[in-house]
Amino acid sequence: MVKVLPSLLASDFLNLESEMKRMEEAGADIFHLDIMDGQFVPNISYGIPVCEAISKKTNIPLDVHLMTEDPEQFVEEFRDMGVDYLSFHIEATPHAHRLITHIQNNNMKAGIVLNPQTPVKDVEYLLDIVDFVLVMTVNPGFGGQSFIESGVKKIAELDSIRTRENYDYLIEVDGGVNDETARVCREAGADLLVSGSYLFKADNTKETIDKLRG
């Protein structure tokens, strides 16, 4: 079954603990945390202390998406706070294969991220070792953007490669995910759906998660 990942970037930061509890009670599977450094993307989000606080207030898995330069520097810190999934952008490091192995050796699932401009072929050499691929269906850096339709082709391509080569990576999608785009992504082969503004602004959170999950 498809899993739903609330993106905490879209939450009310002044009431973060209650927002997390609301999502947990509605059936959220994993919390998604976007880490931005203002360099790799033109925005700054929350840092290590906030992530540590989040990790102490939930028992569901944490999925950290590094939108940073030099992503290697953060692996041990996220391991120590119990993060389960850790992904980085192929453009952020010249040593992607080594970083994936390093993340896995630190007992986390390793993911590679595809920006809207990044073709699947740029990461195809990693697909036999990576645990998941995160397809961005918006340009990273800000929430509330519109879904970029070309991302669906990448999802389908990744699903086709996975089937053909008998790989077992998961396909995650982040950006503009609502009940309509979620359906298209599921049909293309997505396993994990990140939703921010659409989910946190919903009147009925449980019903919305159920719709996303399909």
Automatic annotation (TrEMBL):
Its cofactor is a divalent metal cation; Zn(2+); Mn(2+); Co(2+). The active site is at D34, D174. Substrate binds at S7, H65, G141, F142, G143, G144, D174, G175, G176, G196, S197. It catalyses: D-ribulose 5-phosphate = D-xylulose 5-phosphate. A divalent metal cation binds at H32, D34, H65, D174. Its EC number is 5.1.3.1. The keyword Isomerase applies. It is an enzyme of class 5 (isomerase). It comes from the Bacteria. PROSITE patterns: RIBUL_P_3_EPIMER_1, RIBUL_P_3_EPIMER_2. GO terms for cellular component: cytoplasm. One of its GO terms (molecular function) is metal ion binding. Binds 1 divalent metal cation per subunit. Keywords: Carbohydrate metabolism, Cobalt, Isomerase, Manganese, Metal-binding, Zinc. Pathway: Carbohydrate degradation. GO terms for biological process: pentose catabolic process; pentose-phosphate shunt. PANTHER family: RIBULOSE-5-PHOSPHATE-3-EPIMERASE (PTHR11749). Belongs to the ribulose-phosphate 3-epimerase family. Catalyzes the reversible epimerization of D-ribulose 5-phosphate to D-xylulose 5-phosphate. This is Ribulose-phosphate 3-epimerase.
